[in-house]
Amino acid sequence: MLVVETSAAIGLRERKKRRTHDALLRAALELFTTQGYERTTVDEIAGAVDVSQRTFFRYFAGKEEAALALTEMTVRRFVEEVRARPRHEPPMEALRQAVLNGWYSIHEVIESVASVELYLRMYRVIESTPVLLAAHLRRSAEIEEAIARVLAEREGLDVDADPRPRVAVAVFGGVMRVTERRWSLGEDFSVDGIRALTARYLDQVGPALLGSWRTV
User: Which of 24, 28, 169, 199 could form a disulfide with 66 if both were Cys (CB 3.0 to 4.6 A apart)?
Assistant: First the structure.
């Protein structure tokens, strides 16, 4: 006898899978931020949600994927923000507005899974954990290429023939890395804090690249 699942049954199953995924992710982030990434095991994460290790691996390839999951969500949103910026904005302004608006709307991106406070705590764990920072930087290089292609498309350019999109994104990415590092070492543990620091550093791109720094 052929059994055909109803759309309601399929929807219920997908919601259960989503709840399990989100519960595992929250448990992983809580453990990473309270006892450290290296000291946390997959068994501990699974046990916190009362599921098996096998269930954990149905949702995540490993601890690293879980640790970077929220960052991946915000990065995808940032790329979408860049793509949606008004066409009249110059490329660097489009990047600036996309990232600053992204800090304003970060609640919309992650609060279905975790709190913004937990996200920011995890951000600092990534910065202070060499294996996670290396993975984050590798992923950042891939994202920068994607953004360069978005900028080239916006401006009607061939990204492989015109170096400007990749140069602009390289400058922007470098500024963001400095901002992230300075924020992770500071004392203002808030969205407003990192947003203000981001704006301050991006405001210096023009003067730093084109202006004179000499004071004597």
Answer: 28
Distance between CA atoms of residues 84 and 90, nearest Å: 13
- Rounded CA separation 24/179 (Å): 30
Model confidence over 92-146: pLDDT tens digits? 999 999 999 888 888 887 887 888 888 889 988 998 999 999 999 899 889 999 9
Residue 147's contacts (CB-CB under 8 Å, 6 or more residues apart) are: 79, 82, 95, 169, 172
Distance CA 45, CA 38 (A): 13
Contact 125, 151 (CB under 8 A): no
User: Which stretch of DSSP H or E encloses residue 70?
Assistant: helix 63-84
Q: Give me the torsion for CA of 168, 79, 162, 171, rounded to 10°.
A: 10
